[in-house]
Write a structure and sequence with these properties.
This protein is α/β, with parallel strands linked by helices. The protein folds into two domains: 2-105 and 187-286, Nitrogenase molybdenum iron protein domain (Rossmann fold, 3-Layer(aba) Sandwich), CATH 3.40.50.1980; 122-182 and 292-399, Rossmann fold (3-Layer(aba) Sandwich), CATH 3.40.50.1980. The protein has eleven helices and eight strands. It has helices at 2-11, 26-36, 59-67, 83-88, 199-212, 242-259, 264-290, 304-307, 327-340, 356-366, 383-399, and strands spanning 19-23, 40-44, 70-73, 92-95, 296-300, 315-318, 347-350, 369-372. The strands form two sheets. Strands 2-1-3-4 form a four-stranded parallel β-sheet, with helices on both faces. Strand 1 (19-23), helix 2 and strand 2 (40-44) form a beta-alpha-beta unit. Helix 2 crosses helix 6, helix 5 packs parallel to helix 6 (242-259) and helix 7 (264-290) runs parallel beside helix 11. The longest helix is centred in the C-terminal third of the chain and has 27 residues, at 264-290. The chain is globular.
Length: 400
């Protein structure tokens, strides 16, 4: 930090106008906003009530992307509609899933969304998991039968909530994503062990990166460790891990310090403080999830990173893309819910993008308690508010 401050003072760089940052989803906007502080403006292209995977930019948003000082997006695995605009813009862009050190889990590690093998199930007294010998241990949520999402019955379910023709000003009831599972390859990020205990070291690391980060003309090398990654087999909901949010804050601070050197010290300090907040937040979530006692289902397979913090999801109905499931899956879920209802009222976490008729039918048939969540967050929420709202929804759901 000392050398960074000295550099800022020696250069005596005139303060630029407020920096402008554009992001893909409210969660990434929340992280960027924590780093930018009062030195600029951060906007999200989606607001949490739209599909973050299948989105059509308005002309004004396309212009905002081109005019912004910094664009931060999860990556093609999550928001593929941004790939073209990113390639065509001249400013700085950060593909967050490519940032060095990001913790990524494999796409099938927590994938409960494929139940095509349940067509012939006549007896679900044992919950239909004969082939899953460790069903009672959900630490890794790894059902053996859930390994081929491509065979899922999605042919006739092309976005039943009207996503083929988005008018994004009018979508008031959609806060889920169509975050899709891009294949079966396991992620190549299995050895990330992040330790945020020493924030002084983090600050020093950012300082070094700032000093060495002199050229923004070629960002292809800035995440060299990820160049060969095929993210087709990963869980794309990477922002729901507080440790990843902390890493991204650091990466954004380094970029912003280059864009706006006059406020470099602010960006670095904000990122360090945010990292400490994320460490405490992760511990808080672990404590809250450990206290939850109940059977939880999720419509959308979006909570794998929270499962690593202790959130135990019994089953998911749809995969990462949120497409409506086939009849065999629904029948299996219905019978599984009915079986668990003997032990207490199950909980179903859904999002407004889920087919309403399907959710209502499950609720009527099984008595499951339904609570809606917004995995991408809602515009204007802080990061802690986004993940805290999910935890609160779970606690409310199992308490009913």
């Amino acid at each position: 930090m000392r050398s960074l401050l000295a550099t800022c003072c020696v250069l005596a760089t005139p303060a630029m106008a407020d920096v402008t940052v554009v992001t893909d989803i409210p969660a990434t906007a929340a992280i960027a906003r924590a780093v930018v502080g009062e030195n600029g403006e951060v906007t999200s292209l989606t607001n949490g009530t739209q599909s973050a995977h299948d989105f059509q930019l308005r002309p004004s948003q396309a212009r905002a992307i081109q005019d912004s000082d910094l664009l931060a997006w999860i990556g093609e695995v999550m928001t593929p509609w941004l790939e073209g605009p990113v390639e065509n813009r001249s400013g700085v862009s950060v593909e967050l899933i490519e940032v060095a050190g990001v913790h990524i889990i494999s796409g099938d590690e927590h994938d409960h969304g494929d139940h095509d093998d349940h067509d012939d199930h006549d007896d679900h007294d044992d919950h239909g998991h004969d082939e899953d010998k460790d069903h009672d241990d959900h630490d890794d949520h790894g059902h053996d039968e859930d390994k081929d999402h491509d065979d899922h019955d999605h042919d006739d379910h092309k976005d039943e909530d009207g996503h083929d023709d988005h008018d994004h000003d009018d979508h008031k009831d959609e806060d889920g994503h169509d975050d899709h599972d891009h294949g079966d390859e396991a992620a190549k990020e299995d050895d990330h062990d992040h330790d945020h205990d020493d924030h002084g070291s983090e600050e020093a690391s950012m300082d070094k990166d700032h000093d060495d980060h002199g050229d923004h003309d070629d960002h292809g090398d800035e995440h060299a460790g990820h160049d060969d990654h095929d993210h087709g087999g990963v869980d794309p909901h990477v922002w729901l891990a507080p440790e990843n949010a902390a890493i991204w804050a650091t990466a954004l601070a380094v970029e912003l310090a280059q864009i706006d050197p006059a406020h470099a010290a602010d960006y670095i300090a904000n990122a360090v403080a945010f990292g400490a907040e994320m460490e405490a937040l992760g511990e808080d979530l672990e404590s809250r999830f450990a206290a939850i006692d109940g059977t939880i289902y999720a419509y959308h397979n979006a909570l794998g990173y929270m499962a690593e913090l202790g959130l135990d999801i019994e089953e998911t109905i749809a995969g990462y893309d949120g497409d409506a499931p086939g009849p065999s899956t629904l029948q299996y879920i219905r019978e599984d819910m009915a079986a668990h209802s003997q032990e207490g009222t199950p909980c179903l976490l859904t999002d407004p993008e889920a087919p309403l008729a399907m959710i209502e039918a499950l609720e009527n048939d099984t008595g499951v308690t339904v609570v809606s969540i917004a995995p991408t967050g809602l515009e204007g929420q802080s990061y802690a508010e986004i993940v805290g709202a999910i935890a609160s929804a779970v606690e409310t759901c199992v308490a009913n």
